[in-house]
Design goal:
- By secondary structure, the protein is mainly beta.
- Helix content is about 0%, strand content about 40%.
- The chain contains no helices and eight strands.
- The chain has strands at about 10, 15-20, 25, 30, 40, 45, 50-55, 55-60.
- Strands 1-2-3-4 form a four-stranded antiparallel β-sheet, with no helix packed on it.
Length: about 60
Amino acid sequence: MKNVDVDNFSGAGQYYAKDKQRVYFSDHVVKGADPVTFKETTYLQAKDKNRTYSSGFGATNQN
């Protein structure tokens, strides 16, 4: 993966990881994900302040 902030890289559940700037699923960036509010909820599912995610892709708009 390119541009990973190694010093601030951490797990965000079993399937996701994050640094200060981005959230990752497998070997790609989860587009639009907010690393501050991002958390894994169930198997391959996650959410942040803006939406839910499934397998690293935005699933629904929560607005």
